[in-house]
Design brief:
mainly alpha, 63% helix, two-stranded antiparallel sheet
């Protein structure tokens, strides 16, 4: 039964909270009448069904706000804040070494920002791994860092090491469950999803990351904020 529209979700929640605090187990009978609205009987089951989804959503939001905030603050304090910005000598050294290997590169000023992001990603990964290792050594803690971005950083930092054996090595380096990871990779059960994403990208003409679409026009590669601001301002001006 749908509750009468005039009965607010807040009242329903308050009713459930009050009953959970004071009712005996027998009162939890889903057929038990708890209210009468315009002559219609509202049962315990009606209330439970009405608030099940929004209550779960509220609990999820609360958990994310509380624990998510604490986790982000912890990572910012123990990892991000301890990663220095690479200086020009480091950036130039990476550029020179890469160019000396025979790879064709644009002028240094054009790739400086990209090299800086690469180096900072590498350093962030090292600091994070050191912090996790310290936690494991000093305390009985459960490591809850999401592995997605860790693997993301490793893959982008090692773009010439993406064979199956390389991926397994990366997983072990990150401390993932080797048996589960190997079984998943060897089974190929996620291959169809990966291939679907690849084909979707190709259909859109994507050949690199990151790629941004602004008003249907693609922009490939990292761009400064000012570029997007100029493009968006131009589009908005043209539509006035």
């Amino acid at each position: 039964m749908k509750l009468v529209a005039g009965l607010s979700l807040t009242l329903v929640l308050l009713s459930l909270c009050a009953k959970s605090a004071h009712a005996t187990p027998a009162a939890q009978d889903p057929k038990a009448a708890v209210a009468r609205i315009d002559g219609a009987v509202v049962t315990e089951g009606d209330l439970a069904a009405e608030v099940k989804v929004p209550l779960a959503a509220a609990e999820a939001r609360f958990a994310e706000e509380v624990w998510g905030m604490k986790r982000r603050a912890l990572v910012a304090r123990e990892v991000t804040s301890n990663v220095p910005e690479p200086d020009d000598s480091q950036l130039q050294s990476v550029y020179d070494q890469t160019k000396a290997s025979g790879r064709q590169l644009p002028p240094f000023p054009e790739v400086r920002a990209e090299i800086a992001r690469y180096l900072k990603g590498e350093q962030t990964q090292q600091v994070r791994q050191a912090y996790v290792a310290r936690l494991k050594a000093e305390s009985k803690v459960q490591i809850t860092f999401p592995p997605y971005w860790d693997m993301h950083d490793v893959l982008f930092a090692n773009q010439n090491a993406l064979q199956a054996s390389d991926l397994k090595a990366h997983a072990r380096k990150l401390g993932l469950d080797a048996a589960k990871f190997d079984a998943c990779l060897d089974s190929g059960r996620m291959a169809a999803r990966v291939d679907e994403d690849r084909k979707a990208g190709e259909a859109l003409g994507l050949n690199g990351t990151p790629t941004f679409f602004v008003d249907g026009r693609p922009y490939v590669g990292s761009r400064p904020f000012e570029t997007f601001q100029e493009v968006i301002d131009h589009i908005l001006a043209a539509k006035r």
